[in-house]
Specification:
The chain is mainly alpha-helical. Helices cover about 65% and strands about 5% of the residues. It contains 4 helices and 2 strands, in the order αββααα. It has a two-stranded antiparallel sheet. Helix 3 runs antiparallel to helix 4 (about 90-115).
């Protein structure tokens, strides 16, 4: 499996490691870490990695290919939207000011991430 992990790392430039299932014979759990300013990029890259493994290692059976982060983000996005609704309902002027500050800081973060990608 070391060669597979190494090939994934080299081909896709991601952090990748074997995780858990050490005591199970003929089973491996692979985790990868993908960071990007583009919210769609990690899932797109993960799909490419899954296709790569499926095409190059015909001896392996992919059982589950999921993203824990995606599930957590969905729940957290719902929480943020509920909080936002409350803020605009009970304190719209104050909420608007805070949202403007958040947007300004998000733009700064996006610019810094763009510099890292260039």
């Amino acid at each position: 499996m070391t060669s597979l992990l190494s090939r994934i790392h080299q081909k896709f430039n991601v952090s990748v490691a074997e995780y858990g299932d050490y005591d199970l014979w003929q089973r491996i759990t692979i985790i990868t870490c993908i960071a990007s300013a583009d919210p769609d990029f990690p899932n797109q890259l993960l799909e490419r990695i899954i296709s790569f493994v499926a095409e190059t290692r015909l001896d392996l059976e992919l059982i589950d290919c999921s993203t824990e982060l995606e599930n957590i983000r969905k729940k957290n996005n719902t929480n943020w939207m509920n909080l936002l609704r409350l803020a605009f309902k009970y304190a719209p002027n104050e909420a608007n000011k805070i949202i403007k500050k958040i947007n300004a800081d998000d733009k700064k973060i996006s610019k810094q991430l763009q510099k890292l990608q260039d």
